[in-house]
């Protein structure tokens, strides 16, 4: 049996990570060997946004103090956590797909040395247009996010790049192919 893989999907905010994850999740919904981890975030749920668990700062602190996060980080004034349940899923042989943080990548690699990084890239023009369309940031914040996107180069062992400038299906099928290439034929036990 092939060992389980943790797929750590990263990219600039607005690169389309959530859309790619939603695409793959819908197509793998009946596959018991692939699990998509929810993030716990101190941000309210948005109708078209990430499928996450919204927590208040107090709730986040309580879960952190109880040791319920396998990973956690702060970014752009928000707090993010990945539940320890991923460790159980990996131990049972399930591949786990998660939305990660570029800044936390080195720590994630230290905790999970065999993780596969899926780096979602997008051109600066497309990134700026997507950020404007979602309407969360002002022009200065968008410019800062676009500039920041170039500060994290995709490189190293176990790094797979998906260029997500085109149709969702193109990037989504690339993500499915990556997951499928690393998968064993056995469902998690």
Summarize the structure.
The chain is α/β, with parallel strands linked by helices and 189 residues long. Helix content is 38%, strand content 23%.
SSE diagram, text form:
Elements: E1 6-11, H1 17-27, E2 34-36, E3 39-41, E4 53-54, H2 57-65, E5 69-75, E6 78-83, H3 85-91, E7 95-99, H4 105-111, E8 116-121, H5 124-134, H6 139-149, E9 159-163, H7 168-182
Parallel strand pairs: 1-7, 1-8, 2-7, 3-4, 8-9
Antiparallel strand pairs: 3-6, 5-6
Helix pairs in contact: 1-7, 5-6
Provide structural commentary.
The chain has 189 residues and is an alpha/beta fold. The protein has a single domain, classed as 3-Layer(aba) Sandwich (Rossmann fold), CATH 3.40.50.300. Helices cover 38% and strands 23% of the residues. The protein contains seven helices and nine strands. Strands 2-7-1-8-9 form a five-stranded parallel sheet, sandwiched between helices. A four-stranded mixed sheet has the order 4-3-6-5. Helix 1 packs across helix 7 and helix 5 runs antiparallel to helix 6. The longest helix has 15 residues. It is globular, with a radius of gyration of 16 Å. It starts with 5 loop residues before the first strand and ends in a 7-residue tail after the last helix.
């Amino acid at each position: 049996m092939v060992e389980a893989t943790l797929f750590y999907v990263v990219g600039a905010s607005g690169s389309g990570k959530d859309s790619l994850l939603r695409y793959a999740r819908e197509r793998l919904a009946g596959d018991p060997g692939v699990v998509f981890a929810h993030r716990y975030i101190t941000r309210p749920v948005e109708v078209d946004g990430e499928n996450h668990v919204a927590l208040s700062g107090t709730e986040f602190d309580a879960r952190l103090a109880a040791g319920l996060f396998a990973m956690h980080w702060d970014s752009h004034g928000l707090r993010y956590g990945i539940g320890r349940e991923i460790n159980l899923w990996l131990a049972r042989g399930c591949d786990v797909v998660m939305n990660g943080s570029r800044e936390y990548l080195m720590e994630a690699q230290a905790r999970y040395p065999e993780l596969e990084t899926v780096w979602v890239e997008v051109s600066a023009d497309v990134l700026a247009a997507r950020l404007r369309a979602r309407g969360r940031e002002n022009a200065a914040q968008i410019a800062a996010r676009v500039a920041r996107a170039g500060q994290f180069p995709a490189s190293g062992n176990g790094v797979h790049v998906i260029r997500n400038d085109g149709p969702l299906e193109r990037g989504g099928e690339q993500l499915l192919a990556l997951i499928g290439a690393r998968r064993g034929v056995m469902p998690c036990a």
